[in-house]
Structure formats: structure tokens, C-alpha cells
């Protein structure tokens, strides 16, 4: 078993001899600083098998060896891993189609409010969405990326509905500042909620609840 320095930031949901799954808080990077997931679990002891933005909370899979990391990463490249995210976007989208498919091509690099697609060249990007609930101010979505581009879900939300609440790159600072003032929450409302895959002839599915902050905007 691995020793974790700060259990408040990392919740280990599953661990076996090959990999572990953690539920990380928003604001914790995967490997870029001394407080990152990798540093908390031990550098050279765990190897992330997929990306999860610092601002995004939720499920992260880490292998215990480089060889197992490569094996699980190959499942992503072969589209054999299913992921679902929860997100809250600005606005009431009651008149929007309740579920559908987004297919705008996006850059593999980060974009911004004025150019959410990002710099050329653009590459194929596919995402599914479903509207779970909405009120007069916000809409809760379930999102499933079929491709894995940088900020794909954040870009697709802005291009098709509205920015994700708390998104400092693709959202408006005035709107985010208003959320901080009214609701006393300061985070990106994007959460990696479930992940499903098969590894070594065994099926795995992991899920988490919505973060507590989500209930402040949509109860």
C-alpha cells in the first residue's frame, strides 16, 4: 500500500498490485509541483495513465510500473476506456436538445475566450452531452469525450452552450468573480465522475459523487 501525505486532497478509491484510482480535489496538479498527486504518492512509485487538468476534480488512474502504465494508456489510444464527467455551465438551457453529439474540430493546444478552438491545425474532436437538470441560472451536464484533446470538454461547452462555471481560461472573469462573491466557491465546476475499462481480463468501473460545491449551484 502507498503512503499518502495529505488524505484531504487525495481519496484512494481502489488499489491493487498493478494500479490505483484516486479522487483528487480541484486545484491539485497531477505531477507539476511538490503538492501534486505524484509527489504525494511518491515519485517513481506511480505513473499517471491519462491527463486530468489541475482545475478539474475527480478520478485519476495511476499505474505502479511504467510497463503497466503503457498497457493502460494503450486502452485510451484504442478507445477502450469510457469516461464521464459532470459539469455546470452558465445559463438555463431548458430549450436546448436534452442530449446530443458535439463534433467541432479543435486544436491540440489550449485556446481562450476569443479563440476557444485554439490555434491551427485543428483536429477531429467528438463529445457526447446530456442535460441532467437546470434552473434559472445554471445547467448540470453529463459529458463523455470520445477523443482526448487538450481542454476538449471546456472548449465544446463554450462553443455549444456556455462556459463552465469557474473556468478562468474560457469563461468571463466578471461572471466567475460574481460566483465567488455570491456562493463563496472558487473552482472549475468540472468533475471526472466515472471511468470504465477492462485490464488483464478483468472489468473495472469506478464512480464518485458530485463534489459538495456542486450542490451550492444546483441542489
Mean pLDDT: 93
**Helix/sheet category:** alpha+beta
The main β sheet shows up as: 10 strands, mixed
Please tell me the CATH architecture of the largest domain by its name.
2-Layer Sandwich
CATH homologous superfamily of the largest domain? Pseudouridine synthase
Total strand segments: 12
CATH class of the largest domain: Alpha Beta
Distance between the termini: 37 Å
Shape: globular
Helix content: 10-25%
Instruction: Quickly count the helices.
Output: 5
Number of domains: 2
Low-confidence residue ranges: 3-8
Beta-strand share of residues: 25-35%
Element order, helices and strands?
EEHEEHEEEEEEHHEEH
Features:
219 residues; alpha+beta; Pseudouridine synthase; 2 domains; two-stranded antiparallel sheet; 5 helices; 32% strand; globular; disordered N terminus
Description:
The protein is an alpha+beta fold and 219 residues long. The chain has 5 helices and 12 strands. The protein is globular, with a radius of gyration of 17 Å. The model is unreliable at 3-8 (pLDDT under 50).
Outline the fold blueprint.
Elements: E1 10-15, E2 19-24, H1 37-41, E3 47-48, E4 57-63, H2 66-77, E5 82-90, E6 99-102, E7 106-107, E8 122-123, E9 127-134, E10 138-145, H3 152-160, H4 173-183, E11 190-199, E12 202-207, H5 214-217
Please provide a brief summary of the model.
The protein is an alpha+beta fold and 219 residues long.
Amino acid at each position: 500500500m502507498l503512503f499518502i501525505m495529505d488524505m484531504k486532497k487525495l481519496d484512494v478509491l481502489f488499489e491493487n498490485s498493478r494500479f490505483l484510482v484516486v479522487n483528487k480535489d480541484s486545484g491539485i496538479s497531477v505531477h507539476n509541483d511538490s503538492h501534486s498527486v505524484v509527489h504525494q504518492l511518491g515519485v517513481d512509485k506511480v505513473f499517471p495513465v491519462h491527463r486530468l487538468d489541475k482545475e478539474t476534480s475527480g478520478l485519476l488512474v495511476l499505474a505502479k510500473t511504467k510497463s503497466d502504465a503503457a498497457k493502460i494508456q494503450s486502452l485510451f489510444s484504442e478507445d477502450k476506456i469510457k469516461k464521464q464527467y459532470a459539469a455546470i455551465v452558465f445559463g438555463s438551457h431548458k430549450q436546448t436538445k436534452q442530449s446530443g453529439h458535439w463534433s467541432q474540430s479543435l486544436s491540440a493546444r489550449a485556446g481562450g475566450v476569443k479563440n476557444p478552438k485554439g490555434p491551427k491545425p485543428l483536429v477531429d474532436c467528438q463529445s457526447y452531452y446530456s442535460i441532467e437538470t437546470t434552473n434559472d441560472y445554471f445547467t448540470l451536464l453529463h459529458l463523455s469525450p470520445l477523443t482526448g484533446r487538450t481542454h476538449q470538454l471546456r472548449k465544446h461547452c463554450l462553443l455549444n452552450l456556455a462556459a463552465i462555471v469557474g473556468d478562468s481560461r474560457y469563461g468571463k472573469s466578471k461572471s466567475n468573480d460574481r460566483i465567488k462573491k455570491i456562493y463563496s466557491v472558487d473552482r472549475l465546476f468540472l468533475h471526472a465522475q466515472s471511468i470504465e475499462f477492462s485490464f488483464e481480463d478483468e472489468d473495472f468501473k469506478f464512480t464518485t459523487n458530485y463534489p459538495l460545491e456542486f450542490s451550492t449551484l444546483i441542489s
